[in-house]
Design a protein that fits this description.
The chain is of the alpha+beta class. The chain has 3 helices and 4 strands; from the N terminus they run αβαβαββ. Strand 1, helix 2 and strand 2 form a beta-alpha-beta unit. The chain starts with a helix and ends with a strand. This is Smr domain-containing protein.
């Protein structure tokens, strides 16, 4: 239940081109990433910014969401890169389509 609340709270003011995964388990983060890419494409967005955080609140300070989300995006064929201005974000190039 807490993850649903965190997700709703963190994404309340976001448009279709941003999804904030703070407070999510890896499993939930993957599910939300899949939904967010589909929705962003439907809304005609060219990019999707996925906020995964830097892992500072993870056990031992080791990020879990970022590597899992990046692996998911690779398996789905989405071109993506780390946001050069914020290490806790991934930018997906939706305009290129799936590779």
């Amino acid at each position: 239940m807490a993850s649903k609340w965190f997700f709703a709270e963190n994404n309340e003011d976001n448009g279709h081109d941003v999804v904030d995964l703070h407070g999510q388990s890896v499993r939930e983060a993957i599910k939300h990433t899949g939904r967010a890419t589909v929705n962003a494409v439907r809304w005609g967005e060219e990019t999707l910014t996925i906020i995964v955080g830097k892992g500072q609140h993870s056990d031992n300070g080791v990020a879990r969401l970022k590597p899992a989300v990046k692996q998911y995006l690779r398996t789905q064929g989405w071109l993506h890169q780390n946001d050069p201005t914020n290490a806790g974000r991934i930018v997906v190039d939706l305009s290129a389509g799936r590779q």
